[in-house]
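Good day; I would like, with your permission, to put a structural problem before you. A protein sequence and the structure tokens that stand for its backbone fold form the material at issue. I would ask you to consider whether the tokens describe a fold that such a sequence might reasonably adopt. I set the record out below, with my sincere thanks for your time.
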Amino acid sequence: MKCSREMMQLYAITDRSWLKNQTLEQQVEYALKGGVTCVQIREKNLDNDLFLKEAIKIREICNTYKIPFIVNDNIEVAVKSNADGIHIGQDDGDIKDIRKILGNDKIIGVSVQNIEQAIIAEKNGASYLGVGAIFKTETKPDAKCVSLEQLKLICENVLIPVVAIGGINKSNIMDLAKTKVDGVAMISQIFSAQNIEKECMELLKLSKEMLNL
């Protein structure tokens, strides 16, 4: 699957800490109905077997909506679930080695915090970049914030799509308007909502306004 800038407009990342009385599959489908443009499954505490079972279920739902499905970090789960791609951090492996395993038709997203990391990731074959944390976030309280100036610099110096992540919400999303970013990735803003479908509709509208679409 080719990685496009349109995929980055509203990028949802799962977090089972917000499940309440719903299943992860239900929450993801609500988000898809609301218009999210990409879904990443992020599971830090499940063993591989449970992670794989969950990934297969979510991948099938995403396929129904024709929306890209990305696995966070776990190459084995990404391969066995036939995900559209994987997202890795700076310490999660070599992009070239992962490309050999996944093949040329899969998406590889890479988290970066500065222009140097961004240029190296693109050179090594990343499909898109996730830049953050842009604002303080409870999901990763120890994450160092990336300035809007640094985000803009990254966007101006790479040719691949860039998605901003970290503490982005309705009150600050428009602050990204002049950074040339291609979209926003959200976790709690989406999955903590009482009405996920409605929340995603509103967030997608704001994202498009921010992107001047």
Remarks:
- The longest strand covers residues 107-112.
